């Protein structure tokens, strides 16, 4: 690659295009694509092997559906059971354009809201399809016995969510993710019982096998480690699906589960899969704040609290240590109500988050000092309790109040809650075309692991929808087009590319165990997280990002020299598992900063301080940045290569978002 | 606060294992029980000793991954998951005994980590509704009365943690299994397979080496999700019914 180095950091390559979407009007695209996709004769399906990495909503639903169709599926997850995938933690709900409420909802409206919510950085064709299949998801889940909330008449209930004006969110109390995942898990277990799916739990994918059989490179398998015995296993197949979730844990502290990681995607990236829009990170405004250095993760509190709770900080820095109940109303700054009188406490996630940070940066944060700052703002129910009575508040939010009390030891009926933003979801991921196929043929990517549907911001209740849409309906239809050309040439397990992949996994493990340095894996992870949060978090600046890139590079260098991983490779070794993941985060972090640096505009979860309106709102730049940034691995020690996929909006008019 | 931890250490499935004692200082009220173990592990690593292996993932009380015996109680003194137990439940100077779940059907893998694969195999044997993808009727085609839906929901809250088994002197998985049978049995969609489900799941339960239920109720006292004992009666009722149906 001899394209010039841009900003000393990256090169630009050929543009990319989504070549799989049929050229027909958007409402006919999906039907057309399903019709055009080649069929696989049922008798041949048994001969086709598909590997699926991940058993969250995206992976379990795909595994169940492909198994049921008769393919030979191998399914992998790092937890002890597929039912524990991170999808289980989702609280709020799942959207679907059912229009059961007759309030004017439609496929087009769901498509419109999702695209606008993503600040016009998602792909129209994918988003439309998501809205189109959304209604089928609910039918499927109900048939499986998912206990959605119901009304007295026995019909399904809906609520409105995330600032949307129609009621299209289906929910199962505060456990929607859990209930949807159990539905998919049970469908998967049914296939495991029937022998169409073979489950490998406590197995971690550590490498992708890409083989050129004369027709160009294709994904043909993975190397996985049995996390109990330490055995390094080779699994070969006709196609590989990554459903391995998001990479929010690069920040160390996030609402993600402890094991969430980027390894599967990153290893595929290093083998040629483009990584798209890595800098897009969703920050959620209502999380329980950090209480000390020991903190291992952050807990989300449902956004619905903002419906009745009022957010404030003291007007004066001197008051920040006071008991909040002793601060009279006139000394409180209800800053969201002050700055955004029309939306008040209900402004979108990115705005609420950024303003909370601004207050704390001014020194008006509350709660314990972590480092030099108090990082918390009050979410106060005093007025709601006065207005509605304590019982009514208890009925609406009782379980959330209990959870808060369990974690903080404070009673929110007596003292205001404290909240602070936290990393929640990553909109970037491996680049895929309309078929959900990555830039490596035979490698498909679904759910949070791909980039396509949410743009620069994700609306509430839409990630669950995407995971299940991909797994139950989209992938099974698109992957067959690829599989119809199979079975592909069998791969000899002694093929040089297989051996190379095995060796690289083994030597990495030996290297990690052999460094015997001074610092624990967690200490590196925390330091990386701190850099990412500080410079590539809620607000990014040119200067900060450049600094972060340098800091990450030297941290990575120190990691490979000074990490201490005890124990051996042939047993359960949790430090070893973490070390491998942190090593990959240390590479991803740099790419996130490069992506954030090159995108000199503000959109959704990406706020560049240099690109704001006069009154401090995010300023998008459609003239220059109306594209997806797809990054190609440049090689060890080389700069990454940027491929742009132009986004064209034919069915939706581009508008600036405004919440004033 | 300063505490003395007595922790079960077992290097692998074939190791005999034994208790080890670790003093720990400077534990704060705000830490969760697992964060306290994280702090212990950082200290062990610094001294060159292998950290204590334990399972956790969500740390939000919903994935069911975590779970240890604390002073002889499953998930410890409060009715919650281990990740949601906080150190303010303990006092300065306390001695805390930490062991893995104890049950024949849950073999120890390492330290505090056990294998709960038997739960998945019970689900495989029939804990589902056979609904193929893409052919489901409209969700509103079959209304479900709210009280039935609520009861199904209550049972569906089981997080598969295994505390009920660990707490049961017989090592029975009846609460776990009863919860699934009740969840699916409350729905119209779950009826066609109802008899077959309870029979195959019960057979698998016994084959995995779980013990019989003698109605001691320890399971429900330990359950972090408050699954009530009456799901076991519903399961037993279903089993009798299926036998009457002659299957
Ligand atoms: C607290 C919380 C609340 C949320 N609430 C909502 C909500 O209300 N509505 C909504 O729509 N969305 C919500 N989300 C977002 C949503 O839950 C996730 O985006 C979505 O569930 C991701 O699903 P997934 O299947 O893509 O990945 P995951 O569920 O993360 O699954 C990843 C899978 O990959 C496996 N895996 C990963 N790496 C490897 C590897 N190297 N080898 C083997 N296996 C691997 C894991 O074992 C796991 O099975 C919430 C998220 C959080 C954190
Ligand atoms: S019934 Fe309760 S204790 Fe038993 S596995 Fe389920 S949640 Fe855990
Ligand atoms: S770690 Fe998920 S329930 Fe405790």
Question: Could you walk me through the main structural features you see in this protein, from its secondary elements to its overall organization?
Answer:
The complex is a heterodimer of chains A (660) and B (247). Chain A has 660 residues and is α+β, with helices and mostly antiparallel strands. Chain A has helices at 26-36, 42-45, 57-69, 107-117, 124-144, 176-194, 263-270, 335-339, 349-361, 382-388, 390-408, 463-483, 496-514, 521-536, 542-562, 574-598, 622-625; strands spanning 5-6, 10-12, 49-53, 72-76, 94-95, 169-170, 197-200, 203-212, 217-226, 232-236, 239-242, 275-276, 281-287, 310-314, 332-333, 369-370, 373-374, 377-380, 417-426, 429-430, 443-445, 627-632, 641-646. In chain A, helix 5 (124-144) crosses helix 12 (463-483) and helix 10 (382-388) runs antiparallel to helix 11. The mean pLDDT of chain A is 95. Chain B is α+β, with helices and mostly antiparallel strands and 247 residues long. Chain B has 2 domains: 3-110, Ubiquitin-like (UB roll); 116-130 and 142-244, Fumarate Reductase Iron-sulfur Protein, Chain B, domain 2 (Orthogonal Bundle), CATH 1.10.1060.10. Chain B has 8 helices and 7 strands, in the order ββαβββββααααααα. In chain B, helix 6 packs across helix 8 (230-244). The model of chain B has no long low-confidence stretch (mean pLDDT 97). At the A-B interface, helix 3, helix 5, helix 6, helix 11 and helix 12 of A face helix 1, helix 2 and helix 3 of B. Bound molecules: flavin-adenine dinucleotide, iron/sulfur cluster and FE2/S2 (inorganic) cluster (FES).
Low-confidence stretches of chain A: none
Poorly predicted spans of chain B: none
Put simply, the count of helices of chain A is: 17
Q: Which structural class fits the helix and strand makeup of chain A? A: alpha+beta
**Distinct ligands, ions and cofactors found in the model:** flavin-adenine dinucleotide, iron/sulfur cluster, FE2/S2 (inorganic) cluster
User: Major beta sheet of chain B, specifics?
Assistant: 5 strands, mixed
What Rg of chain B is obtained from the alpha carbons, in whole angstroms? 20 Å
